[in-house]
Amino acid sequence: MEDLKSLETPLVVMGSVLLSWKIIRHIWSFMDLAKPPLTVLVTGAAGMRQIGYALIPLIAKGAMLGPNQPVIIHMLDIEPASQSLNAVKMELIDSAFPLLKGVVATTDVVEACSGVNIAVMVGGFRRKEGMERKDVMSKNVSIYKAQASALEQHAAPDCKVLVVANPANTNALILKEFAPSIPEKNITCLTRLDHNRALGQISQSLDVPVSDVKNVIIWGNHSSTQYPDANHATVTTFSGDESARELIGDDKWLQTEFITTVQERGAAIIKARKLSSALSAASSACDHIRDWVLGTPKGTWVSMGVCSDGSYGVPPGLMYSFPVTCDKGQWSIVQGLKIDEFSREKMDITAKELMEEKTLAYSCLN
Ligand SMILES: NC(=O)c1ccc[n+]([C@@H]2O[C@H](COP(=O)([O-])OP(=O)(O)OC[C@H]3O[C@@H](n4cnc5c(N)ncnc54)[C@H](O)[C@@H]3O)[C@@H](O)[C@H]2O)c1
Ligand SMILES: O=C(O)C[C@H](O)C(=O)O
Fold it and tell me: CA torsion angle for 281, 286, 292, 295 (degrees, to 10)?
């Protein structure tokens, strides 16, 4: 009896601690879900079996803005796709995502852009057989010009924009030019897919988990002239972070097959799937926005297509992919990396292609 009595107080204390912890957690999760929702626009949202269809559930599940951030999703597509767009809305309702606080499915660009905090631009015109590059550019220039104005006038003032649709860098450039009141730091394009592909290739080559590999770089255009650079990449081992280049010990592979595999991965997926990459593009778009909004982990950089400030000799004003770190919703280009002659040449080739695309895009405006 005495023995049981001596246990009474510690048990009561433990019970109270557990109860308080449960109450605190309950209040905490309630407060999180009570956060005001952020509105995310996805254009090209009806792209059946494609990026839109893969991306929207990821956003609704919290993969883009975190597991405690409620969201409202605006989906825009064109009139011929409106039936498919409504089907996506029906499926979103049927999924009962706890974070999803509202869905708008529309073909009206003004309604779609109203009040958005994040805009993911997946919609665009795809090259069809027999079409000239200039014809495709011309269609995308007019789409991005119109959507730039709608975002400028109707989105939230601090709206962050990610352009996914190809030609991603040049579409983002047009959007920046025609939305001058959106800070240029808020307009970016997707090269995170290429970055993740480069991490994947190194992880496969060394047979290490991809989460142990970091700090590859994609320089330049999201096209086959991009320069995937592993010179500064590291791999976490038992002895700390080691140079990926030294661990691989095969500079020839790094300067040939590694680069071409990443550059041509999009085409390889299209050949194998008969459709362009959707799952990996959607997942990378979430990575891009998540790191931009919530910050990159300490000691890690990622690749983002951003407006060049002249860093690394890249012509200012071009939308070019750089290594960046993010903190408090702002990206900064990583400075001071050593650039060897081989890299310099590759970085200039992709900058030259971007300048040619810019000239072509401007010629479509006339
Ligand atoms: N940057 C990258 O890493 C990356 C990776 C993969 C694909 N992409 C590009 O992303 C784009 C989308 O790919 P997808 O496979 O989802 O294509 P998709 O053809 O399935 O979807 C595109 C959608 O855009 C819509 N659309 C066309 N014009 C529009 C407009 N004015 N406003 C709104 N929506 C419009 C179409 O109706 C369609 O539903 C393509 O340009 C593709 O090349 C980029
Ligand atoms: O859609 C494409 O042309 C390919 C895409 O940009 C990709 O990199 O997978």
Answer: -120
pTM here is: 0.92
Which residues surround ligand 2 with Cβ inside 6 Å? 166, 193, 266, 269, 276-277
Ligand 1 geometric centre to CA of 123 (Å): 4
Please state the three-class secondary structure of 98-118 as a single string.
CCEEEEEEECCHHHHHCCCCE
Q: For residue 68, what are the CA distances in angstroms to 40, 117, 159, 287?
A: 15, 16, 20, 16
Which residues of the chain fall below pLDDT 50?
A: 1
Query: How far separated are the first and last CA of the chain, in Å rounded?
Result: 95
Alpha carbon distance 28, 44 (integer Å)? 36
Please tell me the distance between residue 294's alpha carbon and the centre of ligand 1 in angstroms: 26
Tens of pLDDT, residue by residue over 229-246, are 999 999 999 999 999 999
Q: How confident is the model over 249-307, as pLDDT tens digits? A: 999 999 999 999 999 999 999 999 998 899 999 999 999 999 999 999 999 999 999 99
Residue 172 CB–ligand 1 contact under 6 Å = no
How far does Cα 222 stand from its chain's mean position?
Answer: 12
Ligand 1 binding pocket mutation candidate from 75, 126, 127 (most atoms within 8 A of CB): 126
- Cα–ligand 1 centroid distance for 292 (angstroms): 22
Q: How many CB atoms lie within 10 A of CB 67?
A: 10
